[in-house]
Specification:
The chain is mainly alpha-helical. 87% of the residues lie in helices and 0% in strands. The chain has one domain. The protein has seven helices and no strands. The radius of gyration is 19 Å and the shape is elongated.
Length: 170
Amino acid sequence: MNKYFASAYQFGILGGILSIASFGLLAFLQPDPTNLNLVFGYLITPISIFLALKFFKDYTNNGYISFAEGMSVGFVTYMLIALVSGLGIWIILVLFPDLFQVILDSKLNVLSENRQTIIDQLGESSFQNTLENIREMALMDVALSDSLWKIIPGLFFTIIISIILRKNPN
């Protein structure tokens, strides 16, 4: 079983570490690193999945990969990216509570700047509900959000890449 997931472990953990590094670097460059870190996640996740599947196909499975194998290796890869990234971001926020407060203040500022647009489109109750949810946001919410935004696109990219790389023995 380990032979199936060796490349997934390597590239999943590497992708998670790169995501943590991105979050840390972006935290020093701007007040709220969460949005740009999502963009970085949209780049690193498909690259990690592609490399895991390619390495599995070329170096473990003699140049062949079925759709099911691709989905399995891809699943382990993007789940590891999400877990490592989420855990790392949570640790960063625990170690630097001021960063969490800056993220929270930034989200409240964006909400207040767009207050009228939100009220016009969704109503006053929706705005108040969003405001209350942001005020109740916890450290784990930031980490969990980052993880979920690695998993959801990860599934999509895994399907596409598995189809592209699929090659079954004759």
